Amino acid sequence: MSTTAKTKTPKAQAKTPKAATSASAKRTKAVKKGACKLFVLDTNVLMHDPTSLFRFEEHDLYVPIMTLEELDNNKKGTTEVARNTRQASRMLDEIVSTSPNGIDEGIALDLPSHGLATGRLFLQTEAIDIVLPAALPTARGDNQILAVVTHLAERHPAREVILVSKDINMRIKARALGLAAQDYFNDKVLEDSDLLYTGTRELPADFWESHGRGMESWKEESHTYYRLSGPLAPDMLVNEFVYENSGDNPLQAWVKERDGRKVLLETLVDYSHQRNNVWGIIARNREQNFALNLLMNPDIDFVTLLGQAGTGKTLLTLAAGLTQVLESKRYSEIIMTRVTVSVGEDIGFLPGTEEEKMAPWMGALEDNLDVLNGTAGEGGDWGRAATRDLIRSRIKIKSLNFMRGRTFLNKFLIIDEAQNLTPKQMKTLITRAGPGTKVICMGNIAQIDTPYLTEGSSGLTFVVDRFKGWAHSGHITLQRGERSRLADYAADVL
Known about the structure:
By secondary structure, the protein is α/β, with parallel strands linked by helices. It has 15 helices and 18 strands. The radius of gyration is 27 Å and the shape is globular.
C-alpha cells in the first residue's frame, strides 16, 4: 500500500499529554495493520497541490468544513496560491457532482481520477463538538481541523486516521494530542537532495581494462570518439559527463549515444585554454568546462546549472549568451528573468516600466556585465562604452508575471534563482520556448525563500530529475567557488 509518496506512519510518536496518552495507546492497539487508512487533508495541502485528491491511491480522504472555509477565503487574487485554491475548489465540485448517491457514504474516486485513486472522499456533513485543551482555542481554523481528526480517531478505532499537513506546527500540535500526522510527500522528487543527479561521473582507474574489449575509436574534426561496452555502460545517461584523472592523459568526455550495453563517448572542447575563450572567459575548473560545453552546444536546448554562490553560473551563462547572440548570431537576443522573492522585508512598489521595475532584482546581471565588459578587448573608454550599450540593447529583462501565453522564438532564455519556482511554474516557463530557443535554469537549492518549497519539491529539482538522459538537455552541479577566498571560506563555515 502507498500513501502520498510513502505510506509508513511515523515510527515514533511524540510524548503526549497524560489525558491523551491512554486513549492514544488504546487506539494504537486497536488499529488493524494493513487496513485502509483515512487521511484528513489540511487546507495547505490542497492549496499547494490541487491534484492531491487523487494521490492517495487505495486510501480514503476526509475534507473538514474548515478546510473548505479556508479555501473560500483564499480563492481571490492572481497569485499561484489563489489559482491552486480555485482549481482545488473546481475539482471538489466536479467530484461531488459525479456522485449519484449523495456524499454521506463517501464518494468513490476511481471514476473522477480515471483510475489513479480507488479510495473514497468524505466531506464533513455534521457538527462535531470535541473538547480540546484550554490552550487550543476552537476559534482558530487549525484547531477545528484537529478537533475533527480527534473525533474521527475516536469514531474509527480500528482504522488509522492520519492528518496530512504542510504546516510543521500543525503536525507538532497533532502529535502532542496523540494523533498521527504526516507531511505531504507526493510533491517531492527526492527525499534527500544528496541523491540528486549531478551530471558527472568519475571513471574508475581500471575503466579501460574493463571496458576496452571490442572498443572502436576514431577522430572527427577536433573530437575523439570511443564506442565501448562494459559493466558501467548501461548506467550511463545521454549527455552525462565522464572524467578520469589517472595517468598522463586525463580524459574528459560526455555520453553522446547509448544503445543497450554500448555507449558512445565524445571528448570535450577544452574551454580552460585561452584559445577557446568565451567572450574572454575561460573555465577555471572541470565543472565549469562541462557547463560551457553545454552552453555552447547548439544541439542542447535545455541546460540546468546548480551550485552555491560564487561558482560562476551567471557569468558563464551570460558569456555564452553574448558570444552566440553578438558573434555567431545563433540567437536574436538574451531574455533574462527571475523570481522576485526578497531576502528581507519588501521595499514596496517600484516605479517605471517592466524593465525598470525588474532592475533592482537584476544586480547579479549588472555585476557580471561589468566583468564581461572588461574582457571585450582593448578599445579604450569609448570602445568599452559602445560595447556596453550594444550588450544592453541585446538583453531584455522580463517579469515572470507576464509569461503566460507568450512564445519565444530564437531566444537565449535565462531563468535565474529557479530554486524558488514550483514545478507548475517551471512547466509554464519552459513551455514558452519556441523553435531555436535555448533555456537555461540556474539556482542553488540550498537558498529556497518560498514557503512550502523544500530542496526535494523545488521546481529546479523537479526539472533536473525529469530531463536527465534526454538527448537535448544537460545538467551540471558546479562544485568549486571561484569568487574569492573570502566568499569560499564564508560559504563553508557560515
